Amino acid sequence: MSKIIFAGTPDFAAVHLKALIDAGIIPCAVYTQPDRPAGRGHKLTPSPVKELALLHNIEVLTPENFKNKEDVDKFLSFNADLAIVVAYGVILPDSIVHGPKLGCINVHGSLLPAYRGAAPIQRALLDGNDRTGVTIMKIVKELDAGDMLIKAEIPISADDTSGSLFDKLASLGAKTLVDNLPDILAEKITAKKQDPSLATYAKKITKEEARLNFNDSAENCNLKIRGLNPWPIANASIDNIVFKIFKAKVLNDNQGKEPGTIISVDKKGISVACAEGAVCLEIIQAPGKGRVNAADFARSRSDIFSVGKKFE
């Protein structure tokens, strides 16, 4: 039976590890990032992958990196046939990449060569794509540039957020990995090189991107609201109060109002003019408060949300 090492850190990776375990494919070792501070108390917290591996009595290793010879030697001592890497977040040196007999493979959340990099799922949504998927590829030194083994794709629905898309792609990636792993191990799949001329880069999401710009089109504002949910959440300010915006709907008519102007407040929500069209804000959150229906909040705070007022 083949010996496999699994390396991953967040929930997205844990879904893949669970699929392997459920299929009876138990890694000989699991690598994940060290425990990190989390929550209000900043308590050291294990990664989702570590929690799952320990639950199944799988050996877990958490090096910060592989700069120490001892960590490299330990990895090589498993004499693995293959290493599966999913959202690990640690740069792998050549000694690790070429350590297993069949090298290392990665499950990436895009249809490569599009959206190489840190935030492929969010960027595909922010760019208004109607389809996305996963690619299983061989790991090479250049970021996400390895030869492709398998691709699987799904549509992006009109109400998808990056959160819902993460869940869909985690399930798709896990199933694609488990279904094709026997052929990967048997070297029955012919790898296909990526066309570098088609490569795009999905840069990391930052908090600074979260501010809505109503001078943009309503469609792009809504894509930002969807693409930055569940983090960092799109926001806009009025009366010097910053409101997070979790859900909105695109409207075709801005009624000739300046971008940022509230054009109606009704049971559907708070409609705000954009450069093209308008967005109806449906779920919002005030500082220090929970998420609320925008229409209900606006009725209780008509001093803030009244027709003709402008977002800053």
TrEMBL record:
Class of this enzyme: transferase
GO molecular function, one term: methionyl-tRNA formyltransferase activity
Residue ranges of coiled coil: none
GO cellular component, one term: cytosol
Catalysed reaction equations from the record: L-methionyl-tRNA(fMet) + (6R)-10-formyltetrahydrofolate = N-formyl-L-methionyl-tRNA(fMet) + (6S)-5,6,7,8-tetrahydrofolate + H(+)
The protein's Enzyme Commission number: 2.1.2.9
Transmembrane segment boundaries: none
Domain Formyl transferase N-terminal: from-to ranges: 3-179
InterPro entries cross-referenced by the UniProt entry: Fmt, Formyl_trans_C, Formyl_trans_C_sf, Formyl_transf_N, Formyl_transf_N_sf, Formyl_transferase-like_C_sf, Met-tRNA-FMT_C, Met-tRNA-FMT_N
Annotated residues for binding of (6S)-5,6,7,8-tetrahydrofolate: S110, L111, L112, P113
Keyword presence, Protein biosynthesis: yes
Keywords: Protein biosynthesis, Transferase
Family statement: Belongs to the Fmt family.
General function of this protein: Attaches a formyl group to the free amino group of methionyl-tRNA(fMet). The formyl group appears to play a dual role in the initiator identity of N-formylmethionyl-tRNA by promoting its recognition by IF2 and preventing the misappropriation of this tRNA by the elongation apparatus.
Matches recorded under PANTHER family: METHIONYL-TRNA FORMYLTRANSFERASE, METHIONYL-TRNA FORMYLTRANSFERASE, MITOCHONDRIAL
Name of the protein in question: Methionyl-tRNA formyltransferase
Lineage of the species this protein comes from: Bacteria, Pseudomonadati, Pseudomonadota, Gammaproteobacteria, Aeromonadales
